[in-house]
TrEMBL record:
It catalyses: (2E)-4-hydroxy-3-methylbut-2-enyl diphosphate + oxidized [flavodoxin] + H2O + 2 H(+) = 2-C-methyl-D-erythritol 2,4-cyclic diphosphate + reduced [flavodoxin]. This is 4-hydroxy-3-methylbut-2-en-1-yl diphosphate synthase (flavodoxin). Residues 1-21 are annotated as: Disordered. It is an enzyme of class 1 (oxidoreductase). GO terms for molecular function: 4 iron, 4 sulfur cluster binding; 4-hydroxy-3-methylbut-2-en-1-yl diphosphate synthase activity (ferredoxin); 4-hydroxy-3-methylbut-2-enyl-diphosphate synthase activity (flavodoxin); iron ion binding.
Length: 430
């Protein structure tokens, strides 16, 4: 076999690794009391989610907001669709404040948002941001008046807005106009291309109109939501090249389970790798009785596996094979991963930097010792037929070997000591 090497006298090319530099944008600030979340302008990509409770039920909604915030949602959106819902927004905010949960709340408005924000000023003040969909605000002059009313309220209370265009509710008059223009082209575009262009034009033109109505340019976030991966990538690449507003990414109606996760990851990872995107939401359809916080975890894991942010220690675990008929390593990997995530609400303040820790839980001696040595702390469990011992590696060095039926508990105790010694006061990471 002949190996192909670099030309004589030349070094191998320096291949760049990592995402492109973040796109330069304005910065939008969401705040509640002294708590602020910055979107764009070089700030880390923000994770957000949305409740699926009836906002008219303030207790259920406040509980779900708290759950999402504790899971890591830095912004939480709530539906404000009826007078009953709008009337309860201040109560939801008050309940959260009593619990010490100061996550900014975003009001999601459609159809009647101009009326609700005007008729319920306490609601308008309790929210930290408004989400406006220009396609759901009427038609013609009525649409323009309704939009202007919402922008006027945002200006009055100094609230930023997200102008969120969605291809399921695109402004029909704009779409018809652009289709007519397209039919007169010498070489008409495909209908899908016209729709993508209409999304971008709608978002930017409405943002510009908001500015003419008095809303500062640094109080506007844009989004163009579609449900197909390639369309989303194309729309946001175009949108990013034509404006400097911060962009909210999300594949709308992504679907359930693995399909929704895979589709969202495929779309957002491409854009984030290109430096596009300032805040993200993973729109998963929950299984009946499913945990809403799953979409927060998925969003965090996308950002962390891409090296864009760190939220919780990552667990490396092998997939298993015929060498690992025992389920011990699977159970240990799952329990350690769950344990680490559960500790983060306390650890993130007590042990700064712990979110960057890597833990390896491996199932046999093939890759186990190597992966364990590369991790901050790792364990290599015995595979089928191997010596019933589990060496533990800390910072690349083999330290102890665990045996018997209490390996899981002993390893968790070792992890706890490692976190305290390395990330606590006076630890090595300081």
């Amino acid at each position: 076999m002949t190996l192909i090497d670099s030309p004589a006298g030349q070094d191998r090319p320096n291949i760049s690794v990592g995402p492109a530099p973040r796109r330069t944008t304005r910065q939008v600030v969401l705040s509640w009391y002294d708590h602020t979340v910055r979107v764009g302008g070089g700030a880390p990509v923000v994770v957000q989610s949305m409740t699926n409770t009836d906002t008219a039920d303030p207790i259920a909604t406040a509980i779900q907001v708290k759950d999402l915030a504790m899971a890591g949602s830095e912004v939480v959106r709530i539906t404000v669709n009826t007078p009953e819902a709008a009337a309860q927004v201040p109560a939801i905010r008050e309940q959260l404040d009593r619990m010490g949960v100061y996550v900014p709340l975003v009001g999601d408005f459609h159809y009647n948002g101009h009326k609700l924000l005007t008729q319920f000023p306490e609601c308008a003040q309790a929210l930290s941001k408004y989400r406006i969909n220009p396609g759901n605000m009427g038609a013609g002059n009525k649409r323009d008046d309704n939009f202007a009313q919402m922008i006027e309220v945002a200006c009055r209370y100094n609230k930023p807005v997200r102008i969120g265009v969605n291809w399921g509710s695109l402004d029909s008059s704009l779409m018809a106009k652009m289709m007519d223009e397209n039919s007169r082209r010498a070489q008409p575009w495909a209908a899908q291309a016209v729709m993508r262009e209409a999304l971008v034009v709608s978002a930017i033109s409405n943002a510009q109109r908001a500015e003419t109505l008095g809303l500062p340019g640094d109080a506007i976030v844009l989004s163009c939501k579609v449900s197909h991966v390639q369309d989303l990538i194309a729309v946001y690449q175009d949108l990013a090249s034509r404006c400097d507003y911060p962009l909210h990414l999300g594949l709308t109606e992504a679907g359930m389970g693995s399909k929704g996760i895979v589709a969202s990851t495929a779309a957002l990872a491409v854009l984030l790798q290109q430096g596009i995107g300032d805040t993200i939401r993973i729109s998963l359809t929950p299984e009946p009785g499913g945990d809403r916080t799953r979409e927060v975890v998925v969003a965090q894991e996308i950002l962390q596996t891409m090296g864009l942010r760190a939220f919780t220690p990552m667990v490396v675990a092998c997939p298993g094979c015929g060498r690992t008929s025992s389920t011990v390593f699977q159970e240990l990997a799952d329990s350690i991963q769950t344990y680490l995530r559960q500790q983060m609400p306390v650890w993130k303040t007590r042990y700064p930097g712990v979110e960057t820790m890597n833990v390896a839980v491996m199932g046999c001696v093939v890759n186990g010792p190597g992966e364990s040595q590369h991790a901050d702390i790792g364990i290599s469990l015995p595979g089928t037929g191997e010596v019933p011992s589990a060496p533990v590696y800390i910072d690349g060095r083999r330290t102890v070997t665990l045996k018997g039926d209490s390996i899981a508990g002993e390893f968790q105790a070792i992890v706890e000591r490692y976190v305290e010694e390395k990330y606590g006061v006076g630890g090595q990471s300081r």
